[in-house]
Amino acid sequence: MSYDDSCPVCRTAEIVCGKWTLLIIRDLAEGRSRFCELERSLKGISPRTLSLRLRALEEEGIVERQTFPEVPPRVEYALTEKGLALVPLIEDMRSYGRRWLGADGECTPASGEAELVVPAPPAAAAA
Protein backbone atom coordinates (compact mmCIF):
# COMPACT_ATOMS: atom_id res chain seq x y z
CA MET A 1 0.00 0.00 0.00
CA SER A 2 1.36 3.42 -0.87
CA TYR A 3 1.21 6.70 1.02
CA ASP A 4 -1.66 8.92 -0.08
CA ASP A 5 -1.11 12.65 0.53
CA SER A 6 -4.86 13.28 0.40
CA CYS A 7 -5.74 10.59 2.98
CA PRO A 8 -6.47 12.17 6.39
CA VAL A 9 -5.36 9.01 8.22
CA CYS A 10 -2.03 8.98 6.36
CA ARG A 11 -1.43 12.67 7.05
CA THR A 12 -2.27 12.33 10.76
CA ALA A 13 -0.15 9.18 11.13
CA GLU A 14 2.76 10.99 9.50
CA ILE A 15 2.66 13.55 12.31
CA VAL A 16 1.85 11.47 15.39
CA CYS A 17 3.48 8.11 14.72
CA GLY A 18 7.05 9.16 15.49
CA LYS A 19 8.47 7.45 18.57
CA TRP A 20 7.64 9.46 21.73
CA THR A 21 5.38 11.92 19.88
CA LEU A 22 2.06 10.77 21.34
CA LEU A 23 3.59 10.59 24.82
CA ILE A 24 4.82 14.18 24.53
CA ILE A 25 1.33 15.25 23.48
CA ARG A 26 -0.16 13.21 26.36
CA ASP A 27 2.06 15.01 28.86
CA LEU A 28 1.44 18.46 27.40
CA ALA A 29 -2.31 17.81 27.54
CA GLU A 30 -1.93 18.29 31.30
CA GLY A 31 -0.67 21.85 30.77
CA ARG A 32 2.52 23.79 30.12
CA SER A 33 5.80 21.99 30.81
CA ARG A 34 9.46 22.81 30.81
CA PHE A 35 11.96 20.68 28.90
CA CYS A 36 13.34 19.09 32.07
CA GLU A 37 9.83 18.18 33.27
CA LEU A 38 9.07 16.45 29.98
CA GLU A 39 12.41 14.67 30.08
CA ARG A 40 11.69 13.40 33.61
CA SER A 41 8.21 12.15 32.75
CA LEU A 42 9.38 10.38 29.59
CA LYS A 43 11.82 7.94 31.14
CA GLY A 44 14.26 6.70 28.52
CA ILE A 45 14.01 9.58 26.05
CA SER A 46 17.30 11.25 25.22
CA PRO A 47 17.53 15.05 25.38
CA ARG A 48 18.36 15.10 21.66
CA THR A 49 15.29 13.05 20.74
CA LEU A 50 13.05 15.19 22.94
CA SER A 51 14.44 18.33 21.37
CA LEU A 52 13.92 16.98 17.84
CA ARG A 53 10.35 15.84 18.59
CA LEU A 54 9.42 19.17 20.19
CA ARG A 55 10.87 21.05 17.22
CA ALA A 56 8.95 18.87 14.74
CA LEU A 57 5.71 19.38 16.70
CA GLU A 58 6.38 23.12 16.72
CA GLU A 59 6.85 23.12 12.94
CA GLU A 60 3.51 21.31 12.57
CA GLY A 61 1.79 23.90 14.74
CA ILE A 62 0.94 21.35 17.44
CA VAL A 63 3.21 22.71 20.15
CA GLU A 64 4.13 26.28 20.98
CA ARG A 65 7.34 27.28 22.68
CA GLN A 66 7.41 30.28 24.98
CA THR A 67 10.69 31.77 26.15
CA PHE A 68 10.72 34.03 29.19
CA PRO A 69 13.35 36.79 29.41
CA GLU A 70 14.81 35.66 32.72
CA VAL A 71 18.26 34.68 33.91
CA PRO A 72 18.65 31.79 33.35
CA PRO A 73 16.16 31.76 30.47
CA ARG A 74 12.99 29.76 31.08
CA VAL A 75 11.29 27.92 28.22
CA GLU A 76 7.87 26.32 28.42
CA TYR A 77 6.00 24.17 25.93
CA ALA A 78 2.24 23.92 25.50
CA LEU A 79 -0.23 22.46 23.05
CA THR A 80 -1.80 24.79 20.52
CA GLU A 81 -5.45 24.50 19.51
CA LYS A 82 -4.32 22.09 16.79
CA GLY A 83 -2.45 20.04 19.41
CA LEU A 84 -5.39 19.99 21.81
CA ALA A 85 -7.50 18.53 19.01
CA LEU A 86 -5.31 15.38 19.27
CA VAL A 87 -6.17 14.80 22.95
CA PRO A 88 -9.36 12.79 22.22
CA LEU A 89 -7.22 10.44 20.10
CA ILE A 90 -4.97 9.87 23.11
CA GLU A 91 -7.95 9.35 25.41
CA ASP A 92 -9.33 6.79 22.94
CA MET A 93 -5.96 5.01 23.00
CA ARG A 94 -6.05 5.01 26.82
CA SER A 95 -9.56 3.46 26.77
CA TYR A 96 -8.54 0.89 24.14
CA GLY A 97 -5.46 -0.11 26.14
CA ARG A 98 -7.51 -0.60 29.28
CA ARG A 99 -10.32 -2.52 27.60
CA TRP A 100 -8.48 -4.67 25.08
CA LEU A 101 -4.87 -4.88 26.25
CA GLY A 102 -5.32 -5.18 30.00
CA ALA A 103 -3.23 -2.07 30.60
CA ASP A 104 -4.80 -0.85 33.83
CA GLY A 105 -1.93 1.34 35.05
CA GLU A 106 -1.95 5.09 35.16
CA CYS A 107 -0.10 6.90 32.42
CA THR A 108 -0.07 10.38 33.83
CA PRO A 109 3.04 12.54 33.73
CA ALA A 110 5.58 12.32 36.53
CA SER A 111 4.15 15.52 38.03
CA GLY A 112 1.35 13.34 39.41
CA GLU A 113 -1.41 15.52 38.01
CA ALA A 114 -4.84 13.98 37.56
CA GLU A 115 -5.78 12.27 34.33
CA LEU A 116 -7.22 14.60 31.73
CA VAL A 117 -10.88 13.96 31.09
CA VAL A 118 -12.14 14.96 27.67
CA PRO A 119 -15.91 15.00 27.17
CA ALA A 120 -17.19 12.59 24.55
CA PRO A 121 -18.74 14.10 21.44
CA PRO A 122 -22.53 14.12 21.39
CA ALA A 123 -24.07 10.93 20.03
CA ALA A 124 -25.40 11.13 16.50
CA ALA A 125 -29.17 11.46 16.34
CA ALA A 126 -30.96 8.30 15.32
CA ALA A 127 -32.61 8.52 11.91
Topology:
Elements (H helix, E strand, L loop, with lengths): L7 H9 L4 H8 L4 E2 H7 L5 H13 L3 E6 L5 E6 L1 H4 L2 H14 L27
How would you portray this structure in words?
The protein has a three-stranded antiparallel beta sheet with strand order 1-3-2. By secondary structure, the chain is an alpha+beta fold. The chain has six helices and three strands, in the order H-H-E-H-H-E-E-H-H. 43% of the residues lie in helices and 11% in strands. The chain has one domain (8-100): Arc Repressor Mutant, subunit A, CATH 1.10.10.10. Mean pLDDT is 85; it is low at 109-127. It has helices at 8-16, 21-28, 35-41, 47-59, 81-84, 87-100, and strands spanning 33-34, 63-68, 74-79. A hairpin with a 5-residue loop joins strand 2 and strand 3.
CATH architecture: Orthogonal Bundle
The count of helical stretches stands at: 6
Q: Terminal Cα separation, in Å?
A: 36 Å
Helix content: 40-55%
Classify the beta-strand content into a percent band.
5-15%
Chain-averaged pLDDT: 85
| Count of individual beta strands | 3
Q: Would you state the CATH class? A: Mainly Alpha
Low-confidence stretches: 109-127
Order of helices and strands: HHEHHEEHH
Strand order of the largest sheet: 1-3-2
> Which class do the helix and strand fractions yield?
alpha+beta
Looking at CATH, the homologous superfamily is Winged helix-like DNA-binding domain superfamily/Winged helix DNA-binding domain
Oligomer: single chain
Q: Could you give a short account of the major beta sheet?
A: 3 strands, antiparallel
Instruction: Please tell me the total number of domains.
Output: 1
> Whole-number radius of gyration?
16 Å
Gross morphology is globular
Q: The CATH topology, please?
A: Arc Repressor Mutant, subunit A
